[in-house]
């Protein structure tokens, strides 16, 4: 059964780790799973990701940032998400349209109507069936994120990590407001808990959705 599940949250909340754990669990249960991410997920979108996350591009203005996210998403949806769902796969995506609302809407204070219109165009109306929001204190998330960046070879994708604490607090608050508006789609899970406890909570929520009970 096709199902589109997204993972959201501030920097360092544990999305990538938890998505990897869930993918293995779902595959063990016999599901066909596609894992992907935004920005990125396919060659063209990955090139745009390089621009968006490179700290050297600090002069990137908010509107240009928003348009680059929309361009990457349009390519990603057409090339990865839509085909996978069409073949009945479970698609797990690390960030999607809610990230744009949280970061460029609440974080950058860009116009919500403009963001909604671009998201609708880029996704051709595709929306997540379930969104896992991993919530944790900003300080905890940024500490984890910088530790990961400092231990990873290659390009330092840290343009957002270097934003002010107030920016990250606006993003976190934005995510929580989005979740409060759509409680039927969002499941908010403590991202500061242990990896195993967090994974168990996510698995419960996802299996309930896949069985039709969620």
Percentage of residues in DSSP E strands: 5-15%
Tell me the number of structural domains: 1
CATH class: Alpha Beta
Most strands sheet? 5 strands, parallel
Structural class: alpha/beta
- Tally of extended strands? 5
What is the oligomeric state here? single chain
Rg, rounded, reads 16 Å
The gross shape turns out to be globular
Tell me the distance between the termini.
14 Å
Order of helices and strands: EHEHHEHHEHHEH
Output the number of helix runs.
Answer: 8
**Helix-residue proportion:** 55-70%
Q: What name does CATH use for the topology? A: Rossmann fold
Domain Thymidylate kinase-like: 7-202
Keywords: ATP-binding, Kinase, Nucleotide biosynthesis, Nucleotide-binding, Transferase
EC number: 2.7.4.9
Protein name: Thymidylate kinase
Structure explained in plain terms:
The chain has 214 residues and is α/β, with parallel strands linked by helices. It has one domain: P-loop containing nucleotide triphosphate hydrolases (Rossmann fold, 3-Layer(aba) Sandwich). Helices cover 56% and strands 13% of the residues. It contains eight helices and five strands; from the N terminus they run βαβααβααβααβα. A five-stranded parallel beta sheet has the order 2-3-1-4-5, with helices on both faces. α2 (43-53) packs antiparallel against α3, α4 runs antiparallel to α5 (112-123) and α4 packs across α7. It is globular and about 45 Å long. It starts with a strand and ends with a helix. The model has no long low-confidence stretch (mean pLDDT 92).
Name the descriptors:
five-stranded parallel sheet, Thymidylate kinase, Rossmann fold, transferase, single chain, 5 strands, 214 residues, Thymidylate_kin-like_dom, ATP-binding
């Amino acid at each position: 059964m096709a199902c589109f599940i997204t993972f959201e949250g501030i920097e360092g909340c544990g999305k990538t780790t938890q998505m990897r754990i869930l993918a293995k669990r779902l595959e063990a249960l016999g599901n066909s799973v596609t894992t992907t991410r935004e920005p990125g997920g396919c060659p063209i979108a990955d090139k745009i990701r390089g621009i968006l996350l490179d700290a050297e591009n600090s002069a990137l203005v908010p509107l240009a940032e928003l348009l680059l996210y929309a361009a990457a998403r349009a390519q990603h949806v057409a090339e990865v998400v839509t085909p996978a769902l069409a073949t009945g796969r479970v698609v797990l995506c690390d960030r999607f349209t809610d990230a744009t609302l949280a970061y460029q809407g609440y974080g950058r204070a860009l116009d919500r109507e403009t963001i909604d219109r671009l998201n609708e165009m880029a996704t051709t109306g595709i929306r997540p069936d379930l969104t896992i929001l991993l919530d944790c204190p900003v300080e905890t998330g940024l500490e984890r994120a910088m530790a990961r960046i400092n231990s990873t070879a290659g390009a330092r994708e840290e343009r957002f990590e270097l934003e002010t604490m107030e920016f990250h607090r606006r993003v976190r608050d934005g995510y929580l407001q989005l979740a409060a508006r759509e409680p039927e789609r969002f499941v908010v899970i403590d991202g500061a808990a242990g990896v195993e406890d967090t994974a168990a909570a996510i698995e419960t929520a996802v299996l309930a959705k896949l069985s039709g009970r969620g």
